[in-house]
Amino acid sequence: MSRCNSGESPLDRFIAVVTWSISTVRPVIFGVAPYNPTLGETHHVSRGNLNVLLEQVSHHPPVSALHATDEGENVEMIWCHHPTPKFYGTSVEAEVHGKRLLKLQNHGETYVMNSPKLLIRFLPFPWADWVGNVRIQCQESGLEAELCYRNTSFLGRRGNQRSIKGKVFESSSLKTLYEIDGQWDRTVRMKNKNNGKVTVIYNAEEVISGLRAPIVKDTREIWASESALVWSDVSRGILSKNWEKAKEAKKAVEEKQKELQRERESREENWVPKHFTVSHSKDGGWECSPIQKWVPEAPIIVPL
After folding, report:
1. Which residues of the chain have pLDDT under 50?
2. Do residues 242 and 233 lie in contact, with contact meaning Cβ atoms separated by under 8 Å?
């Protein structure tokens, strides 16, 4: 993400943003999903100077908001998303509504992008993957990108290619500057349409293998709404393969949420997010504005 801000030209920065957008897509592990975000649940984590805060701002429908800032780089990201599932008998397709805003304040540039769809298939073989189109736009530089995530597996077999194709072009003339091709879980290449030069812009194995698990720096600073704390007993049950324990722990979390909801109703209170202001857009979507300008340093950190 730091490369997005360090590019010398608007085109360099735009390509870095496209690469970063691709890097946020990860292979989905198919199986039982015991975690169902609770209303007001948060995740607060830092990596270097980048501080990230997420909050579940609605339960029905499920809406998540994200705010990330880096004061040193003067970078801000705001993301509010709302998945809507559609059932097709043997599969489920979840369209992730909402947009990501990545702001490079030093350059006066804002990048707007959407998310691919999550496709879950049950028959004849269970698997899940990302599909669909992603559009990235920067009004200030007049550049755009179109990315198409495709799954070429046959009848749901695991031999899918997880391919990605796309292009970077000028908004005004629609002239294509670069073509993008590859597999988003392996290697993605970019071809310069002017001179034919091909370069690798993303190597998933190299990037993901370099990530390290987050650690708790200060237990006293962890909020009661922190995901790792809310679901700690469920996680222990899963890690020890004690499925009955995990099931009971999940039920306890859900019952507590129902009790809190009943208490609010008895007092005729509406739940209000702590970290975001939530509103509805003209197209019926959701918009989430962070209350704080900068996200504070978190008690959970990802080592560099």
Report:
1. 154, 156
2. no
DSSP 246-257: HHHHHHHHHHHH
Q: Are 73 and 57 within 8 A, CB to CB?
A: no
CA gap 266, 115 in Å, rounded? 38
CA distances from 197 to 5, 42, 177, 190, 193 (A): 24, 44, 12, 8, 8
Domain range summary for the chain, segments of one domain joined by +: 2-225+273-301, 227-266
Residue linked to tokens 């690469």:
19
| Max CA distance (Å), the chain | 69
CB 100 within 8 A of CB 89: no
Q: How far apart are CA 210 and CA 190, in angstroms?
A: 23
pLDDT tens-digit series, residues 45-54: 999 999 999 9
Q: Which CATH architecture has domain 2-225+273-301?
A: Beta Barrel (2.40)
CA dihedral 135, 138, 141, 142 (to 10 degrees): 50
**Measuring CA to CA, which residue among 216, 278, 208 is closest to residue 67?**
278
DSSP state of 226: B
Which of 239, 204, 156 is closest to 27 using CA atoms?
204
**Amino acid, single-letter form, for residue 283:** D
What pairs with residue 163 in β-bridges?
Answer: 150, 183
The rounded distance, in Å, linking the Cα atoms of 76 and 150 is 30
pLDDT in tens, 217-235: 989 999 999 999 999 999 9
Contact 275, 290 (CB under 8 A): yes
